[in-house]
Design a protein that fits this description.
alpha+beta; 60s Ribosomal Protein L30, Chain: A; 7-stranded mixed sheet; 36% helix; binds adenosine-5'-triphosphate; binds thiamin phosphate; binds magnesium ion
Length: 348
Amino acid sequence: MDEFASIRHWTSGRQGVEWQRERGVVLGIGDDAALINPAAPISGVGSPYEYIMAMDTMVETVHFNAVTMSYEDIGYKALAANVSDIAAMGGIPLQALISVSVPRNLGPEPMRRLYDGLYTCAERYGVAIIGGDTTSSPQHLVIAVTVTGAVEAGKGLRRSGAKPGDAVILTGPVGKSAAGLHFLLAQQERGIAALAGERAESLVLAHRRPSPSVRAGRLLLTQGTCHSLNDVSDGLASEAWEIAEASGLLVSLREQQLPRSGSMAAYAGAAGIDPLEWMLYGGEDYVLLGTMESSDAIAAQAAFHAEGLPFYIIGETLAGKPGVEMIRTTNKGELRMPLMKRGYNHFE
Ligand SMILES: Nc1ncnc2c1ncn2[C@@H]1O[C@H](COP(=O)(O)OP(=O)(O)OP(=O)(O)O)[C@@H](O)[C@H]1O
Ligand SMILES: Cc1ncc(C[n+]2csc(CCOP(=O)(O)O)c2C)c(N)n1
Ligand SMILES: [Mg+2]
Ligand SMILES: [Mg+2]
Ligand SMILES: [Mg+2]
């Protein structure tokens, strides 16, 4: 199958014309470029709105390998990670462009499966796939996604808006994806099903099929009380540092208030690993980390719970030199531990 037949094979019959139009798409896949109406009414977003644009890339051996992810998972997660950046601005995702660089010997079926996963995610979050690019790759598979979204003009939630005295909030548990990855790599090393069972199942799912927090981001935006927001791709400590530096303050987390998944903690125990390592430095959780006044955080928590969404108040911000600390309560009193700006870093 040549390049053009391949693209048709991956994308045909999945265009969903009607709901693409609801996403502002005038012309989708097939011409030199897509055409978008920049003023189309977008249901659920107030007018006037601003466009949000972001991109994220996944590279074989860096973000996935044959053991950690199926082709369906790779497609799903590549788009999910992008949708998460739209959620982190408080927006609704609209369209995506997909670039794939495919090893020559791969054959058509794996890529068709990758697109199956991609379209599953696209339909779940209402994203119109409007085009992309295709090249061969000398060795590894690379998928780069550009995503657009919309948010009420002037209201996009930035990393830089935190104020001293804010409560620090988190929209879900952290560390499950890193635990799932550890499990999968341990399996790979030993060549056996190491610690199968339901617990590992939910961790593996967290790693392979992350759920970007679009509903949570929209709720935070429409409540109008959130001062700063970021999504957790590189790890809680690293993302807290981003807010600390962008806002010019100290982020102080309380160890006891960090949401700890039972299955993650149980697996960490069995693997002989400190669960805090995964919770603070693991990454790929795609939950949202933000700040708001503490009275607003209590109200927001009630609203989240009423919607069946998790919401944790995990610390506060303080005036001071940008940094992140974690407070540990011991029987001798409170221990303030500075947290390094460590997390997943591509150049370390
Ligand atoms: N190669 C690049 N050229 C220009 N801008 C870039 C480049 N890479 C990243 N950026 C910009 O840097 C900022 C931070 O990007 P970064 O990728 O660190 O955040 P993120 O996408 O939230 O995190 P992650 O990629 O770990 O999920 C964004 O504004 C992004 O557009
Ligand atoms: C095989 C394999 N090894 C390691 C990892 C861990 N990992 C890779 S990139 C990343 C941060 C997010 O990426 P980005 O910053 O590019 O958005 C993390 C935690 C993995 N997923 N698969
Ligand atoms: Mg990025
Ligand atoms: Mg982000
Ligand atoms: Mg990163």
